[in-house]
Design brief:
Order of helices and strands: HEEHEEEEEEEEEH
Radius of gyration: 20 Å
Largest sheet: 9 strands, antiparallel
CATH architecture: Distorted Sandwich
Distance between the termini: 76 Å
Number of domains: 1
Length: about 200
Amino acid sequence: MRWQAAIKLMLWTALVSAILTSLYWITAYDLLDRPATASTSGSEWRPEEAADRRTGLAIAIPVQGIKPSELINSWDQSRAEGRLHRAIDIPAPVGTPVLAAMDGRIEKLFNSDRGGLTIYQRADDGRLMLYYAHLQAYRRGLTEGQVVTRGQVIATVGASGNADPAFPHLHFQMLETTPGSAWNAGEPINPYPLLAGKRRAP
């Protein structure tokens, strides 16, 4: 009968949809559990190695797949309440892997009204604090005190906090600080010239 055939078709459609959804989430969680890699000209390269070739810096662009030429210098742009933007925004689709820009240690995992889901990472030499904001999610298993390497996936791009949901992006800030200082202390410096290869890290 026609109604029996229709029910069978609906059940098969629901089953296939459930299987595809499960495969999607398994792939997403697996991505968050491993370092990011990409392929070019048939060979594999790590994001930090590509950054070194392009800029000569010991720093990687903290969003997977973004080239130096695609960065926009949004430093010191006006924001609400008369604030100046002391960081740069790197637009990317929700779920795009966020990478550790330098070798270092996760100093603080924090959720705030403005920044949403955030990460503070202290660079190896202790003189720079890296701030990643508006994240969608942390990499599974990421903890405070954990050592991370340049180019390692630490989170995914989102629009948490006061970010516009129609404009998912990574808010990336660098602060000059001193070894042993508080995780939220430091003087912001413009990361754009460093990531774009226009000058070396301080």
